[in-house]
Amino acid sequence: MLGNQETIKRLTGQAPTMFRSGTAFYDEIAVEIVNELGLEVVNFNVLGDAGATFSVEQVHRALLGAKSGSIVLLHMNQPSSGTAEGVKKAVYDLREMGFSFVLLEDYELE
Fold first, then answer.
1. Which domain holds residue 59?
2. Strand, helix or coil at 93?
3. Which of 90, 91, 89, 98 is nearest to 68 (CA)?
């Protein structure tokens, strides 16, 4: 059941502390199970690339819709998609707009 967590720990030396389901859906029971496993539920509020199907410009536009505290869902596993270039472009623009990028683990999540 926790195969991915175990793989991440083996490869990085660190066990994950957060969990997002593949469907991004949670009911009360799912949250309880995740918490009982010692993980914190996280989700996203910006769909960054629609499963790596967006063009460079669509990714860029999606990320520019971020607000302070946003979590963006991106898929970097499709090298031929527009994700990587769209992210590069958006990061530059977001920094120019005063955004900074942080690790979730450094913040108390609501």
1. 44-100
2. helix
3. 98
Task: Say if 109 falls within a structural domain.
Answer: no
Ranges of residues in the chain with a pLDDT under 70 are: 1
Residue 53 domain-assigned (yes or no): yes
Close Cβ partners of 21 (under 8 Å, ≥ 6 residues apart): 30
C-alpha–C-alpha distance, residues 17 and 23, integer Å: 19
Q: Count CB neighbours of 107 within 10 A.
A: 9
* pLDDT tens profile 35-62: 999 999 999 999 999 999 999 999 999 9
**Residue 73: how many CB atoms within 10 A of its CB?**
16
> pTM surpassing 0.85?
no
What is the total count of domains within the chain? 2
Whether residue 64 lies inside any domain: the answer is: yes
Question: For residue 84, what is the enclosing H or E element?
Answer: helix 83-96
Rounded distance between C-alpha atoms, residue 37 and residue 84, angstroms: 33
